[in-house]
Amino acid sequence: MTEQPLTPTERRNEKNRTWAFLEAVQAPTPAAAAPLEGTILDRPTATELRKLTGYNGDTRLYRMTPPYHGNKHVIVSAAVAYGNPETYLFPADASGEVTDWTELPGSLKGHLDHTAALEAAGYQVVTR
């Protein structure tokens, strides 16, 4: 008896089971644990929505898919504070208002780089 080829749905389900197994046996790093939760086939994405004014330095609003530490949006601020470069991630609402000034994991000292900070948080940057 010959084995029948898998249907597209069966192939996708098989991939999902494989990724779920790999995620279960691989110990995630603390910064990557939250954004990878629930993601099977694609890397989490941070979509740049717009530049923001009224903040020090280069500040932009991003939509996080899946949400990062429960936040659908984050603000990334790359600025020089007290003579030191830093790029910080903060929880925000969809309008670009910071909802909590406690910096999120992925924030970097010594760098002015949105992409590096978001990648440190486990996200791939997407521009529109």
User: Can you count the beta strands?
Assistant: 6
Order of helices and strands: HHEEEEEHE
Sheet of most strands: 6 strands, mixed
Which radius of gyration do the C-alpha atoms yield?
18 Å
Major sheet strand order: 5-4-3-2-1-6
Q: Which range best describes the helical content: under 10%, 10-25%, 25-40%, 40-55%, 55-70% or over 70%?
A: 25-40%
Average pLDDT works out at: 82
Structural description of this entry:
- The chain is an alpha+beta fold and 128 residues long.
- It has one domain (1-128).
- Helices cover 25% and strands 35% of the residues.
- It contains three helices and six strands, in the order ααβββββαβ.
- A six-stranded mixed β-sheet has the order 5-4-3-2-1-6, with helices on one face.
- Strand 1 (45-52) and strand 2 (58-68) form a beta hairpin.
- The longest helix has 18 residues, at 8-25.
- The protein is elongated, with a radius of gyration of 18 Å.
- The model is unreliable at 31-41 (pLDDT under 50).
